[in-house]
Amino acid sequence: MVQAEPTALLYKRPDGTALAGRESRRLKELFKDFGVQPSTVTVMGQMGFTLSTLINMKDEEVDFVIKSMIEEYHLDLLMGEQFGIKAAVRAKRRLVVEELEQQRMDMAALSNEKKRRLEEPSDGLLLKDGNGSLEALGLLGLTDPDSDSEGKKAAKRRQRKRRSKEVGDDGEERPREHPFIVTEPGEPAKGKKNGLDYLFDLYEQCGKFLEEVQHIAKEKGEKCPSKVTNEVFRHAKLTGAGYINKPKMRDYVHCYALHCLDVETSNNLRKEFKERGENVGAWCQACYFPLVTLARQNEWDIDDLFNQNDKLRIWYVPTKLRQLCHIERMKHGE
């Protein structure tokens, strides 16, 4: 018996409309604007690739897939198709990264807004007598002892948080800090809430407190801090400026940075968000993007931008701003 010679692996390219189902539609949607033929997409689907698989692959792995389609499946891929496959995967990957980052920023904005609402006094609970705030806390503490729900636990945590803020170590009640509102440059704040000019002035005061700390350190022969640290916040508190605290100042460093680096853009952003009736949380998030643009113009050296500015060099670059610059740099392949 004569044994048949093994034949080379041949793959007949099927019709591009043969594939059906969700994954095939997703693949076709991925490559439709990149010059990849439907029949090529069909082959990739029959090889077992999905949208999720492709966008999570490295560029070298995508190159290997293209090479396998040409050498093992004997597909006559056009040069434009080869580059189109890689371009489509990169574009989708960037889009997914942007969507995830936007979701993260939205969640952060929502978390900050909830935090500020918890810190805002509730007129319905506070009584008018001298012990009003403490009595209101007593009312909030009346919970069902048999209930272990998350809502009850959260109420207890808020109660402890308010007590720690309103009653100092000496037993005296501290004035509650009011939240900020979006105001235009030079616009006075209305009611009990402070405007953005007041916020930026707090950073100017921090610079003066840092100079005082440096002067004290020199007199004692100790090392002088070059940036605003916990030591500066403690000094501000001891001198009666308890309204300057670390959490508040760290939350808005990037907003102050935009004000120092590009005051025109900062002022326009304030006017725009004031006209739209947006809250401080939304304005705070929007301040990141112009700074990322400035970092890109400075070869992504955000530290250099801070260090070159006399008012900013005393502040640490916020971690979130640094991360956003890194993400944008990776997206642009720079």
Automatic annotation (TrEMBL):
Which intervals of the chain are annotated as region Disordered? Answer: 139-189
Alphabetized UniProt keyword annotations:
Activator, Developmental protein, DNA-binding, Nucleus, Transcription, Transcription regulation
Give all residue intervals belonging to the Floricaula/Leafy protein SAM domain: 25-100
Give one GO term, molecular function aspect: DNA binding
One record GO biological process = regulation of DNA-templated transcription
Where the record annotates domain Floricaula/leafy DNA-binding C-terminal, the positions are 168-332
State its location(s). Nucleus
The family database entries (InterPro entries) matched by this protein are listed as:
FLO/LFY_C, FLO_LFY, Floricaula/leafy_C_sf, LFY_SAM
Which intervals carry biased composition (Basic and acidic residues)?
Answer: 165-179
GO cellular component terms, A-Z: nucleus
| Ranges of biased composition (kind: Basic residues) | 154-164
The free-text function statement in the UniProt record for this protein reads:
Probable transcription factor.
Similarity-based family:
Belongs to the FLO/LFY family.
Name of this protein: Floricaula/leafy-like transcription factor
The gene is LOC112279259
